[in-house]
Design brief:
271 residues; Rossmann fold; 2 domains; 39% helix
Length: 271
């Protein structure tokens, strides 16, 4: 058994080399430490010293370590107040703006989508939201660095616990299957999944809405946060919205084109 203090010291050494920051991992360090110990067992190593040597001699092992540090906790309708604001305020405004410039759909990006709960929640919001004027049809791009998570997302089947915060009126969008709840096919078509690491690349510009929650501005190191914040701002159309996690904030100073609306919501100024 490797002492926790040694595991923490190792992570404090390794994380900056991956563009990550220790502060973001304090609450989830137990998960990462367990994964790290399991990896050492797979390699037949009994301590961290030979693992550091392996990292220094085998660049491919850094990719393995990077995968161990990905935190993919998610669920449908996470942070209810955010989804209510999207339904009641943000999507109607974005729809009006898009129609005014002649667009026929809203382009949305879920960055760091893990196994798909967030982009599918957004698709359900468009399809099953409160009665009233309907938003434009969505085109939702969902990206993540982990192809295994995206394979789960495309399958679209989840344990019942993942749906515990979902509004009751949306439960009919799922059907039971072997102890899981699988999203019906008619609610999947708006979402397209793409393997992409936001630290290294981003999709083309022109998004009305970007959800980048509980990823870059929690786990990434400050210089990387600043670069990603600038790139996210550039990916938004004028008047488009960037949604962060409810406990996140943009690095200081934020991109000049982004204006805060509330702690977790930023809007790109019009040109």
């Amino acid at each position: 058994m490797i002492p926790e203090a040694d595991l923490i010291a190792f992570l404090q050494w390794a994380l900056p080399r991956l563009g990550l920051r220790w502060a973001g991992f304090r609450r989830v360090r137990g998960t990462v430490c367990k994964r790290l110990c399991r990896r050492l067992g797979e390699l037949g190593l009994r301590s961290l010293a030979p693992y550091r040597i392996r990292l220094e001699t085998d660049p491919g092992e850094w990719a393995e370590l990077d995968a161990l540090c990905r935190i993919s906790v998610s669920r449908f309708y996470r942070d209810r107040a955010v989804w209510q604001a999207l339904e009641q305020e943000i999507l109607p405004r974005l729809t009006a703006q898009a129609r005014a410039r002649g667009a026929d759909r809203l382009r949305c990006w879920s960055a760091g989508c893990a196994s798909g709960e967030e982009p599918y929640t957004l698709a359900l919001l468009f399809a099953l939201g409160a009665p009233g004027p309907r938003p434009l049809p969505p085109e939702i791009l969902a990206t993540d660095a982990d192809p295994r998570l995206l394979a789960r997302a495309r399958r679209a089947c989840y344990p019942p616990s993942s749906l515990r915060e979902l509004p009751e009126r949306w439960r009919g969008a799922f059907q039971p299957c072997a102890g899981e709840r699988c999203l019906r096919s008619e609610h999947r078509g708006a979402v397209r999944f793409l393997v992409q690491d936001i630290r290294r690349e981003q999709p083309a510009d022109g998004f009305d809405l970007i959800l980048c929650r509980n990823l870059a501005f929690t786990y990434f190191a400050a210089p990387l946060q600043a670069r990603i914040a600038q790139r996210l701002a550039e990916c938004l159309v004028a008047g488009g919205d960037l949604v962060l996690g409810t406990h996140e904030s943009l690095p200081e100073p934020p991109p000049a084109t982004l204006v805060p609306q509330r702690p977790w919501l930023w809007v790109r100024e019009r040109d």
